[in-house]
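ok so i was messing around last nite and threw this chain in just to see what happens. nothing serious, just curious
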Amino acid sequence: MTATATYHKRKLYVPKIVEEKLGLVDGDKAEIRIVDGKSFTVSIKRKSSPEDRLIERILKSPFTSKMKGKTLKREDYYDAGRS
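result:
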């Protein structure tokens, strides 16, 4: 896959498709190595482990349950623990 990034005001902007394919999140770092005067390679240094990312994604996703009416997440967890 090839994508074009934009350099503007000392920042390199990564296309959304690249962000999604690599699973980039805020806090990830890009290590840039200059190969010669005209090219470079980029390696991603993850902020967190894949397991931590999965937990973050689960916690950010909307919670659905079969309970009637509106409830908060903590109420659902509390009720689930009582059964």
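not much to say yet. Residues 5 and 11 are 10 Å apart (CA to CA).
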